[in-house]
Write a structure and sequence with these properties.
The protein has 14 helices and two strands. By secondary structure, the chain is mainly alpha-helical. The protein has one domain. β1 and β2 form a beta hairpin. α10 crosses α12. The radius of gyration is 19 Å and the shape is globular. It starts with 17 loop residues before the first helix and ends with a helix.
């Protein structure tokens, strides 16, 4: 009789979740600059990032840490996910200053929302459309991550339509209005080069792009359209090694 095979450790999500479907796509990472600029648009978030990190020297380090957390929670085992959440919550306890605290549920909700919205926008821009039911499921599944990171369940907009209204208000008449500090920090995010600027500008909501003063003329539009078309055509032809993030490939092997 051969050795028994133990079942793979379960995670918070699984292969049938929309979270796996969306977050496994490497192309979704192209929305990272968008998410960062949306977060910085809130003056309290910009202050916390500026005063408690080396963002000006390493602007992408925050994004990489956030992505590591996202992938550990989405694709890791339950133990991996809970450990990652505890580490973030511990780090947030020391981030406070005049008018802000990283444990503020309103700020946590905004940062969380920028990641959810940017993932959906980037997926549909580069990979393909999602059905309304899938968009709704992705939002509902994201609440689990938010709760692990300290957002009270009662703080979440009830459904996807409510979430979209909340998001539109935040960047419209709400507090997510980029000021001088946010615009200065944005310059560090967009420093890598012109293609990154065009991609980020193209993915941002028009009102946010305008308030950051990002150029969006014929050249930027053409570059964004060309880059979007190139990525969209390449994805169906790409093997999993290139198309999927490493954490997703590992999770799929574990699930199999």
């Amino acid at each position: 009789m051969g050795p028994q095979t133990r079942p793979a450790p379960a995670g918070l999500y699984g292969p049938s979740s929309v979270t796996w479907k969306v977050n496994r796509e490497a192309a979704v990472l192209l929305g990272g600059g968008r998410a960062l600029l949306l977060q910085l648009a809130h003056p309290a978030v910009a202050a916390g990032v500026d005063e408690h990190s080396d963002f000006r020297r390493r602007p992408l380090r925050r994004l990489l840490r956030t992505l590591d957390l996202t992938y550990r929670i989405a694709f890791g085992t339950r133990a991996d996910a809970l450990e990652a959440a505890r580490a973030v919550n511990t780090a947030h306890r020391g981030v406070r200053g005049t008018g802000y605290s990283a444990l503020d549920p309103d700020l946590l909700l905004w940062v969380h929302s920028t990641l959810v919205d940017s993932a959906l926008v980037s997926y549909e821009a580069f990979v393909g459309p999602l059905e309304m039911a899938e968009r709704e499921a992705y939002y509902e599944e994201s609440k689990l991550v938010g709760c692990l990171l300290g957002i009270p369940a009662s703080s979440f907009p009830k459904g996807l339509a409510d979430f979209e209204r909340y998001f539109a208000w935040m960047i419209g008449d709400g507090p997510a209005q980029p000021g001088p500090r946010a615009r200065e920090l944005a310059g560090h995010v967009l420093r890598p080069g012109f293609p990154i600027r065009a991609l980020t500008a193209g993915l941002l909501p028009e009102v946010v792009r305008s308030r950051y003063g990002l150029a969006w003329g014929p050249l930027e539009r053409a570059l964004f359209t060309a880059a979007r078309g190139l990525v969209s055509r390449a994805i169906p032809l790409s093997p999993p090694l290139l198309r999927q993030v490493p954490a997703a490939r590992a999770a799929l092997r574990r699930a199999a």
